[in-house]
Amino acid sequence: MTVALITDQHLDGRKGSLAFWEYFQKFYDDVFFPTLERQGITEIIDLGDTFDNRKSIDFNVWGRIRRNYFDRLHDMGITVHMILGNHCVYYKNTNRVNSPELLLTDYENIQVYNGVCTTYIEDTPICLVPWINKENKEETFSHLESTNAEIVMGHLELDGFEVTPGLKMEHGMDPKLFSRFKQVFSGHYHHKSTKGNITYLGNPYQMFWNDYKDTRGFHLYKPAENKIRRVKNPYEIFQKVYYNDVANEKHVIDETYRNTFVKVIVEEKRDYQQFEKVIDDLYNIGAHDVKIVETLVDPEDLEDVNLDIKDTMTLLNEYVDEIDVQVEKSELKKLMRTLYIESCEVA
Predict the structure, then answer these.
(1) Cα–Cα distance, 118 to 241 (Å, whole number)
(2) Domain locations in the chain?
(3) Domain 3-233 has what CATH class?
(4) How much is the pTM?
(5) pLDDT of residue 345
(6) Beta bridge partner(s), residue 195
């Protein structure tokens, strides 16, 4: 038996933006649902963050989500095992108030797991671990010690994994807590990565600029054989154009840029008329938005400039190290990292 694994869909994400929803829906219409039909999938395990907004949902947005996702799963007779993620819960210290249980009660094909449990898929025990918080932490780890499952699926915040490409989580739970299991799959981090027995599956589509060129998709999994295969999402919503008219480069604006967000990186600009044409062509082809990024360094001075390039978190950590404050600096760095990650999610 093959089941589908999907996580971090954030179906109402980007504040319900229609542009992003149409991009999401293209994945569901062209990739997700056709794959389920071809493979004869009857069960899905959703590893959390099905919804994005912790406190509310727009009625119009909810209507199109119901019609285009949940109703289709129901009509196809697909059972959904849904784990709660941190974006699904109203409070940070309990899972008791959550959007899936409030919104999905009329779908008999959807089972929401608000607490840790072990369920069976094709006679294979799988331990399902929703978002761990102060209230359920003791119960969760007690169950993890006693379960007969060798496979864990959860929405975990583990130390040392990439949240987004190039940005590692430097706090969170120790991955060694899950070392006794054969296989651990998790949602929460949108970038796919694997260390030892733990795999972060990654979300189905790009949502922020730090997702640029990062492959997304969902997975098909055979529990009895512990075999997994990724189904890639071929669609991208972020594109870059590197503009340089001195190098006589041709800037071909084609269908690739339709319905995307574009950054034009200006390397050399001498022909202003040609530059304006490129910008006009992007809007005419149907780009959602075009941002222009111009370099401020004169190319003739590059040999005399010592560019020490550092990422944002390195700069923040160096700043914390230098300032004189009466707090634990490691805790301050964790707070800065958390705020930085949250800022990336609203960019």
Answers:
(1) 49
(2) 3-233, 238-304, 312-344
(3) alpha beta
(4) 0.86
(5) 57
(6) 198
